[in-house]
Amino acid sequence: MIKVITGIFILTILATTAAVAKENPYAGLSDIEFSRLRVSLPDPKDQNWQTATMTRDEALKSQENKLLASELLPIWIRLSLRDSPEQTPGLLYTLLSLVDDPDPQVSMKSTIGLFRLGDYQDKAFNKMSNFFRSLTVKSVANGQTDEKINNFLAELSFYSDHRFDQGLYKVWESLSKLEGKNKYKISNIGYYLEKSGKQLQDIQDVWSPATDFVLPSSNGEIHAIARTCPFTWKDANGEEYKNCAKMIFLPKEGILWFGFCDYNHFFKLGDTVVGFGMMPGNVLFLVPSIKIIAQTSANASSQLKKLMIDKLEKLRRGERLGERSFMLRKVFGLIDIDTTKIQDARYQLQAPKFLGISFYDNAVQIEFLTANGSKEIITLNKKLELVGASVNGKQMPL
Predict the structure, then answer these.
(1) What's the whole-model pTM score?
(2) Where are the domains of the chain?
(3) Using one digit for the tens of pLDDT, what is the confidence trace for 367-380?
(4) At what angle do helices 104-117 and 63-83 cross, to 10 degrees?
């Protein structure tokens, strides 16, 4: 009898749990799980709501409150779905009204918040796609669209939403007349389309698709665009060698770094991007970037393409690209190598391991670790001149 009652009790609990789960699929989810979940939103209702910090009337009272509400409402809506679903329709109604707010910042933040929730009847998606369709050469040139372009593209990319890719491609084509600094304002559209598999007309076919590239600077990490290109070059004797070219480009600043793919480490000091690498014989090579485009240039896009072709041809011919070199053996006092001691010679010629970069007072420090565990540091100023060197904390004479 007890077993029967126990069995009925367990079945009742299971049935109740199933009913609750069916009624609220978000019940029981942790905050971490729920914060990343796109949800199914109910129909909105024009009803009052109140949280611990704000009421509906307060949310719509001023621009400052609207901006705050546009950030908080998506969070409250998500939590209400799990904890108090009866509040969700009213909260959603307010968020939808903010999506259509005349203030561009309020509208943008609310649109992004709604899109991250999972959207309601494609309202956020349509808002974003209509914004892109509205772009013109004039609207991009006046500088009012930059933030929206980048933020909306980031959301489409993060959620792998490619429904508007073809429309975005038409937008890109319609803005092809942009030149100079205005061309860079839509560079992220081109980058997004490339990652989606589109072949853009103004990108050289020989170069790889653009990829994200992050390099350190005195102001923190800088995001750039990187491309590579395989090529063949001939030496003075006509011998052919296969190699690879690399370009690092900062569109907003018009800074282009160009060199071999052997340069694996980069930093930005002032207005210069520097690529560096170790070559045989413990020789540190540094290649500085060039400032290719003045902010008033009218033919920046064509200038960039011309430079890419010109620099690649120089690499093919084996010409130098303005690199500078430092023989670390000399810098750190290791000039005299007894080559009769093969083991010592190998040690002295073995390239040290790169450890890191640090910045201070318009200078950069590059730290290495040698084969025997010594820490070597060189300090360069903005002109890439050697102004300091140390081994295990001991300063070396220059």
Answers:
(1) 0.54
(2) 1-35, 36-195, 211-395
(3) 988 777 888 888 98
(4) 10
